[in-house]
Amino acid sequence: MNSFFQTLSAIALIIVLMSLELKPKPKSRRTAPVKLHQEFEDEQPIKQD
């Protein structure tokens, strides 16, 4: 029974970790282009000067 609960807890941990890993990925993908645009906006005035 102990091994059964250990496998259940391991599977639950994996599911939680997977859900946590999957959630930040879309956020990082969305923020990545925004950061690039902010960098270009910061670089443009420097290049114009």
TrEMBL record:
Native source organism of the sequence: Heterostelium pallidum (strain ATCC 26659 / Pp 5 / PN500) (Cellular slime mold)
Protein's recorded name: Uncharacterized protein
Biased composition (Basic and acidic residues): 36-49
Assigned keywords, A-Z: Signal
Signal peptide residues on this chain, from the entry's feature table: 1-19
Span list, region Disordered: 26-49
